[in-house]
Amino acid sequence: MNCCNQCQGIEDMFTQKVAEDDLRDYHKNGPPKQTRLLLDTLRAAGIEGLTLLDIGGGIGAIQHELMKSGLSATTDVDASSAYLAAAKAEAARQGYAEKAQYYHGNFIDLAPQLEDADIVTLDRVICCFPDMAAMVSLSAARAKKWYALVYPRDTWWMRIGGRIGNAILALGRNKFRFFVHPAQAVDELARQNGLQPYFQRNVGVFWQVVVYEKT
Known about the structure:
By secondary structure, the protein is α/β, with parallel strands linked by helices. The chain has helices at 3-13, 16-29, 33-45, 61-68, 81-94, 107-110, 132-140, 156-171, 183-192, and strands spanning 51-55, 73-78, 100-104, 117-123, 143-152, 195-203, 207-214. Strand 1 (51-55), helix 4 and strand 2 (73-78) form a beta-alpha-beta unit. The radius of gyration is 16 Å and the shape is globular. The termini are far apart.
């Protein structure tokens, strides 16, 4: 599968209705558990005055929460136009639209035109792209201080579940696919970009939260 097909799959999967439902859930319950853990870790490390590059930010939960905690500016990159519109509207509602930038498309293609940021986040994003090496390498290279990820646990049940889910998607002629990439490979690419593990924790059976610090 190539990135063009996957980006079209992302557009088809994460529609305006999905974005509206996710935003409604955010207003009612806040970010999901794994995202809250990522946020709490970054806040505890200190983010006052820093900048954020949020890749695949969805409805913008990380952006909204960290802007409340003192970020100076944020940049959102997403392959879903519906998610991007929802994040932008919520930023305006929360009163920080002038401090936010938005880019629609595949981060791998857009990376050369994006500035580095103090914090780079990918919350359930690596699992949405087939070219993990390019996604991690290019995003890790943009992190000046913190690099924070939420991605699938590298377990046999996640790999089997991913295959079953992808088979169902294929039967429905949906181009979107789910990927369980090797955790060791992700870690090696982060380290190659001068990052060292700062925090790691599994969240339930599905997700792991990993935060790296630039050395």
